[in-house]
Specification:
CATH architecture of the largest domain: 3-Layer(bba) Sandwich
Order of helices and strands: EHEHEHEHEEEEEHHEHEHEHEEEEEEH
Low-confidence stretches: none
Radius of gyration: 22 Å
CATH superfamily of the largest domain: FAD/NAD(P)-binding domain
Structural class: alpha/beta
Number of helices: 10
Strand content: 25-35%
Helix content: 25-40%
CATH topology of the largest domain: FAD/NAD(P)-binding domain
Largest sheet: 8 strands, mixed
Number of strands: 18
Mean pLDDT: 91
CATH class of the largest domain: Alpha Beta
């Protein structure tokens, strides 16, 4: 007997921070019945914000996070501890609080704890192929937020994964006192990585792309009016790098100086890449079975695919420079602007 097909209005692929906000929008803003939503995720643990990046101090203050909850018509869970409103908050706290805020509104949604193998267009719907599932599921609209993985570069150096470099207890398993690490990038995460390496007793060659108008052409600061500039903890560390290289332990190396980059890599035992993210691969097929290449813009001819989160962030261009928006407030603003 053929398994019965269950149809939904919305399929959420991945259930980290971005799609938790999508679920909140659908139920709280768009008055979607949660029984018309299917959520497919291998973990249901709050996503990479908790699983991989939980120890990272985010660029989002508690006050900004509370604003996200208000914008999404969500309530702060009972007995939530009070956090300083003007201070950045560890990502695991943001992830767990958001998950607890969304949960009461999606209890009736269908959840499948497994990877999505593929979504294929079939007429006006998407047929969902899910690992280890015999039942058939289709949905009118896809919300794709599979998460991202750090971009790596093809340098022949042993690599410290970015999430390890951002977690001091894990970093100590890689870096020995006196070792030098090449850190690529000079944004928020790379600055925190450099600070962690120095505290572990290491040295840092920070390889950066020159930014016209930035301090020492290396750092953009929020205090200078830079959109999404470094602030709080990262800004303090960046000031220490500019002042004396954190006690002459961090060296700034412009990436366009090939000789200096070569020397920096020769000196380094490890490399860490903090130069952005790329989407976790996901198979979306048209009716002919041809894979649809998901870009940042809305797909021509496929208006019922929405893409969210760190894999497919919104961008803002100011004075010819494009900034990628990857915070929870930015995800919420993107969802509210698009209104799926």
């Amino acid at each position: 007997m053929e398994p019965r097909t269950r149809h939904y209005k919305h399929a959420l692929i991945g259930f980290g921070g971005a799609n938790m906000l999508v679920a909140a929008y659908l139920v709280r803003h768009a008055a979607t019945d949660p029984r018309d939503i299917i959520i497919i995720d291998p973990h249901f643990d709050g996503g990479d914000l908790r699983r991989r990046w939980g120890s990272v101090i985010s660029n989002t203050t508690w006050s900004q996070f509370l604003g996200v909850l208000r914008d999404m018509h969500l309530e702060l869970p009972p007995n939530t501890p009070a956090y300083p409103e003007d201070q950045p908050t560890p990502l695991h706290i943001l992830a767990s609080t958001l998950q607890a805020s969304v949960e009461p509104h999606i209890r009736l949604a269908t959840r499948i704890k497994a990877p999505l193998l593929a979504a294929r267009k079939q007429g006006d719907a998407w047929e969902l192929e899910v690992a280890k599932q015999k039942a058939k599921h289709t949905a009118t609209t896809l919300h794709v937020a599979p998460g991202g993985v750090p971009i790596d570069l093809p340098f022949p150096k042993p690599e410290i994964p970015l999430h390890v470099a951002l977690t001091p207890s894990l970093l100590q398993q890689y870096v020995s006192p006196g070792q030098t690490v090449a850190v690529f990038g000079s944004a928020h995460s790379s600055i925190l990585v450099a600070d962690n390496i120095v505290k572990a007793g290491g040295l840092v060659n920070m390889i950066f792309k020159r930014i016209p108008g930035a301090s020492a052409e290396a750092f953009l600061f929020a205090r200078d009016g830079a959109y999404d500039g470094v602030k709080q903890t990262a800004a303090v560390a960046a000031d220490q790098i500019l002042a004396d290289g954190m006690g002459k332990r961090v060296y700034l190396v412009p990436v366009d100086d090939s000789v200096a980059v070569h020397t920096a890599l020769e000196e380094s035992s490890w490399a860490v890449y903090g130069v952005g993210f790329k989407p976790v691969p996901i198979r979306i097929l048209d009716e002919a079975g041809t894979e649809i290449q998901l870009g940042f813009a809305q797909q021509p001819g496929h208006s019922n695919i929405y893409k969210w989160g760190i894999a497919y962030p919104s961008t803002t261009t100011i004075d010819g420079r494009t900034y990628v928006d990857v915070s929870l407030p930015a995800f919420a603003a993107h969802i509210l602007a698009v209104r799926p």
